[in-house]
Design a protein that fits this description.
Sufe protein. Chain: A; binds zinc ion
């Protein structure tokens, strides 16, 4: 019997392709001229380094964002997907996504009412605990940028 729905394997292949695509061609890669917010994050276990730049307006909306850095495919793809997702979000929405993505990557309780969309592609890393920090680095760095924490974020 052939099924019309996408099988788990096909979905995993799609997610892997999405991650590889973002790792090879990161979106919004670069720096902003005069960002209102920025932060740097490192994951010493893997050697991933990221800087995230944000423009946040007076209504707490992220009007522009980009990132630069170097690291493994998962860390770069995660940052690329993150920046693509959060442009035009307000900081309250970002906080909800932050909780939801951390929960989905660390296998704790799911956040109700949040559709992670493409970010679901990252969920596969929870099968590889040592890579979870590669995927969460961008989110911790984003959080630090929004909160204007000026020390470097580290996953260790
Ligand atoms: Zn990594």
């Amino acid at each position: 019997m052939e099924s019309m729905s996408t099988s788990g394997d096909e979905l995993r292949d799609l997610y892997r392709e999405l991650i590889l695509d973002h790792a090879r061609n990161p979106r919004h890669f670069g720096r902003l001229e005069n960002p209102s917010h920025q932060a740097e994050g490192i994951n010493p276990l893997c050697g991933d380094k990221l800087k995230i730049y944000l423009d946040i307006d007076s209504k707490n909306t992220i009007t522009d964002a980009c990132f630069e850095g170097s690291g493994c495919a998962i860390s770069v793809a995660s940052a690329s997907l993150l920046v693509e997702t959060i442009i035009n979000f307000n900081t309250g929405q970002v906080a909800k996504y932050f909780s939801a993505i951390i929960a989905s990557l660390t296998n704790t309780e799911k956040q109700a009412g949040i559709d992670l969309g493409k970010l679901k592609a990252l969920e596969g890393v929870k099968e590889f605990p040592t890579r979870v920090k590669c995927a969460t680095l961008a989110w911790h760095t984003l959080n630090a940028a929004i909160k204007k924490q000026h020390r470097t974020v580290t996953t260790e």
